């Protein structure tokens, strides 16, 4: 598809980034920092408190839409006071600087208040995806040394109660529930908040103080806790300004779940440093409901994801045409490849092409984007943010070199450093070091750059599975499957899908005495769903007499995938036997 959307000179609102080349040339991180207050680099201060002394104090910061159709607004001043209370709650519980506060909640105002309060008390906020089952939660809380958990009564009952005794470091569980609802061994959120003062003075924060811990999945080993520091807020702010084009009076809707990095960087911090109204919808995805929200809430900027867009496309143009979106002016996407058809569909559905952005947990913020005032090549990720040097590299023996030839595929790398770059994987120095060489951070993604300097995603360089934008580790699934009494070997691959891009498929070899039949397959699927959570569990399980392995005994996922997809098997010289 070679359509190029010509940038519109008569955009209804002048974009923040009008001349990409000029802005890139003149950009400096020092200047970007100067757009924030010099008072305190603390993320929550920059996002909320600094606005309280300005006319923004009475502006709506958070508009929450509840599942039952209810709605509640919080101004910047109210968010400041409520988060002060939560900071005092943590302080009163004796939670010290750098200690981890985990959050396991749906999209409810208390979660947003808790995130800000945690940052204000210089504790580290660590989001958990509320659709996770107990196993991924346990692994992440153990690695992260979770001292406090904030969750809801029902999530506590379903997911935490049974693993709590395996979390000796977890000292406090704060339950968001009816004030009267007391659970043994837990605190009640409202009761604690009521007793806490709404006056809090944020300690002077060091730019390198740890602020957030975001878990991500690798091909092998346990989940990795990516450390982010308070000065990441500089990048959150400036990328929101350029790529999301935040302007005063915007009503912004980020549909990403706050259990993942997008829901934090661009669902909490960035819209608020930029002073816009942040819409939070508690309800699950539903085509008509989403159109209704976009229309009724007069959303101006919408940050969503390819899977959701493909689901809207599937419902057809006739549905979207029943609604009107005169206020919508910028539609943006992240998390998976945005196919060219989806970009074009945006034009047909909303009169606006969809702008892709690329980044990852480790980069902490948007690295590459299509901007409102720059032509779009549908299917491309766009151009590096001002301040960001993205390159395509190849690894040869132990050396790394940049690829200058347009269209040649290599690994996407970013030159270090930038404010929101992760500062480590918690307790895993070796794994962190492996991501860097000299001036490069290696993303693990394959990409290419065309002759105009525009970047195109090609695929992952590893076996990590990206299902609806959720990164899933095959290793995590395999480890849980191996805990089942019938399973001798397990190998998990990514199987392509039209809507969710790909989903995990598991291959299993059974121990002697177990029958590879439908009953066992059903049982295994139930087992893994219960342990991992349905959203991230394999959709298919296939039995094989034995799995292909290297001579050193490693399951060859690459071969399983090639066979599943009917692709060439490639080099099989390391195969244990001819399977
Ligand atoms: P996460 O760390 O969970 O945010 O996932 C990051 C990964 O998602 C990247 O390394 C890519 O593999 C994928 N990803 C994110 N944005 C895009 C995009 N615009 N196009 C293609 N893949 C993307």
Automatic annotation (TrEMBL):
Domain AMP-binding enzyme C-terminal: 476-554
InterPro entries according to UniProt: AMP-bd_C, AMP-bd_C_sf, AMP-binding_CS, AMP-dep_synth/lig_dom, ANL_N_sf
Domain of life, per lineage: Bacteria
UniProt keyword Nucleus, yes or no: no
Biological process per Gene Ontology, one example term: acetyl-CoA biosynthetic process
UniProt xrefs under Pfam families: AMP-binding, AMP-binding_C
Protein name stated in the entry: acetate--CoA ligase
Organism encoding this protein: Uabimicrobium amorphum
């Amino acid at each position: 598809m070679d359509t190029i959307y010509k940038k519109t000179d008569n955009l209804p609102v002048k974009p923040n980034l009008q001349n990409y080349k000029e802005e890139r040339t003149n950009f400096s991180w020092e200047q970007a920092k100067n757009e924030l207050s010099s008072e305190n680099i603390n993320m929550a201060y920059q996002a909320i408190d600094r606005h309280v002394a300005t006319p923004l104090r009475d502006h709506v910061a958070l508009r929450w839409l509840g599942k039952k159709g209810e709605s509640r607004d919080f101004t910047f001043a109210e968010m400041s006071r409520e988060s002060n209370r939560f900071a005092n709650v943590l302080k009163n519980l004796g939670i010290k600087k750098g200690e981890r506060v985990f959050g396991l909640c749906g999209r409810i105002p208390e979660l947003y208040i808790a995130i800000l309060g945690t940052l204000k008390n210089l504790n580290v906020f660590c989001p958990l995806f509320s659709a996770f089952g107990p196993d991924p939660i346990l692994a992440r809380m153990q690695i992260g040394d979770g001292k406090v958990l904030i969750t809801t009564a029902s999530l506590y009952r379903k997911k935490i109660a049974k693993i709590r005794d395996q979390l000796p470091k977890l000292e406090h569980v704060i339950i968001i529930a009816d004030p009267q609802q007391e659970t043994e061994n837990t605190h009640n959120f409202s009761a604690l908040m009521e007793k806490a003062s709404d006056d809090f003075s944020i300690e002077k924060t060091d730019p390198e103080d740890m602020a957030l811990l975001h878990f991500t999945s690798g091909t092998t080993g346990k989940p990795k806790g990516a450390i982010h520091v308070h000065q990441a807020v500089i990048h959150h702010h400036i990328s929101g300004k350029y790529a999301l084009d935040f302007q005063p009076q915007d009503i912004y809707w980020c549909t990403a779940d706050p259990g993942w990095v997008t829901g934090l960087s661009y669902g909490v911090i960035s819209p608020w440093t930029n002073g816009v109204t942040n819409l939070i919808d508690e309800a699950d995805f539903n085509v008509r409901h989403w159109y209704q929200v976009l229309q009724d809430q007069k959303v101006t900027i919408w940050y969503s994801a390819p899977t959701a867009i493909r689901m809207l496309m599937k419902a057809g143009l006739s549905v979207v045409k029943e609604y009107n979106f005169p206020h919508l002016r910028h539609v943006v996407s992240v998390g998976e490849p945005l196919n060219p058809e989806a970009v074009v569909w945006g034009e047909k559905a909303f009169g606006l092409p969809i702008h892709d952005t690329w980044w990852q947990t480790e980069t902490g913020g948007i690295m590459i984007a299509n901007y409102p005032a720059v032509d779009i090549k549908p299917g491309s990720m766009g151009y590096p943010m001002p301040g960001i040097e993205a390159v395509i590299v190849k690894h040869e023996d132990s050396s790394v070199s940049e690829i200058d030839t347009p269209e040649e595929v290599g690994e996407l790398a970013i030159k270090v450093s930038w404010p929101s770059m992760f500062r480590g994987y918690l307790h895993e120095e070796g794994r962190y070091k492996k991501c860097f060489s000299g001036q490069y951070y290696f993303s693990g993604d394959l990409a290419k750059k065309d002759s105009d300097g525009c970047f195109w995603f090609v695929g992952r360089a590893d076996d990590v599975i990206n299902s609806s934008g959720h990164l899933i580790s095959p290793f995590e699934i395999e480890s849980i499957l191996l805990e089942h009494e019938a399973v001798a070997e397990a190998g998990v691959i990514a199987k392509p899908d039209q809507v969710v891009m790909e989903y995990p498929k598991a291959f299993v070899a059974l121990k002697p005495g177990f029958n590879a039949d439908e009953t066992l397959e059903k049982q295994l699927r139930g087992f893994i769903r219960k342990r991992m959570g349905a959203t991230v569990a394999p959709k298919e399980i296939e039995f094989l007499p034995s799995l292909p392995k290297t001579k050193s005994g490693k399951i060859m996922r690459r071969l399983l995938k090639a066979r599943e997809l009917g692709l060439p098997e490639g080099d099989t010289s390391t195969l244990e036997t001819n399977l």
